[in-house]
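Sequence in, structure out.
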Amino acid sequence: MHSAYEHARDTYEAIGIGTEDVLQKLAAIPISLHCWQGDDVGGFEKTGGGEIGGGLAVTGNHPGKARTPDELRRDLEQALALIPGKHRLNLHACYGELGGKKVERTDLTVAHFQGWIDWCRARGLGFDFNPTYFAHPLAADGFTLSHRDENVRQFWIAHGRACRRIAADAARQLGKTAVTNFWVPDGSKDSPADRKAPRERLAASLDEIFVEPIEAKLNLDAVESKLFGIGSESYVVGSHEFYLGYAVRNQKLLCLDAGHFHPTESVADKISSVLQFVPAILLHVSRGVRWDSDHVVLFDDATRAMLEEVVRGNFLARTFIGLDFFDASINRVAAWVIGARNVLKALLVALLEPAAKLREWENAGDLTARLAWLEEVKTLPFGAVWDEHCRRQDVPVGAAWIEEVRRYEHAVLTARG
């Protein structure tokens, strides 16, 4: 044992927290790493660039963007080598390996993702999936599942159905449940005259997608809201209220994306409310700066509050955690590492909190003790416990991972031009 850890262990033991139990729990919590951080939401359907669409925009031109599935997997491997624990891959449908052929999104099958599934199996990773409702001619006008054109709507319904089957097939092979998250960019730049009809069409389209029964042990469906986007500043069909109602009615997972709410809203405060009525939630941990800009996750108050609420409410078994950001202004591998390690640090701090004692004082009306200890725990030596976690998981301790990323950048990324 390391002396700093021994001191931290004894300090936490004095307030009733066993750090060995905490480290065991933390090691069992997977984070789903989003593939789109590594190539600026490009995907592999076409070459030569082009607009992402769907209100999405990636800024920056740091060298080394992944250009092929093999390059992206190599970058993910480097990130995973620097993140403690065993995690998951979160893949978008536009990242299929199509063999140089044109394959419509309605015709995608598990065969187009077998390389990713095999890669996950070899590394003991789970697999999550997302239909891609952007970067396509039939999404160019800003509407997909809520489109007024029945033919366009049926195309996107078929895509959603195909994606659920792919996720289930992947889960069957890996022996780990997949989460398939549905987000659509549908909305208007200016105020619409009819807010009702698109929402009726979106609900009906989702019903058609989900009509095919798939075992919950293979696939869980999540639905994700958004406040606004580029090109949908005035009206988003899939608002929080829409998807909250849909998830409750149909007992789907509700995805709470940290960047998809007003800046003054607390995502942490929504968790215990939502979980009264839905079976589970998907947390997309991100960081909005002035708008839904998907900045790299920090170890900040907002992130800590979300994970504290998950732990305090004993919701870990009903919460799936994924990263969702993209930053091309910095080393893309480093972005994964920084974000994932910060989420894990926030989970560790939450697990080290004397929650039972805090509830005991609260229930006894001793609000002085509650406030005092909420402040005292902020300076307890959680950093030594984090370092011990990294040592046990055989990843760099402290800032040592930065040099590993630098070496990878010089040896691999700069060669890509």
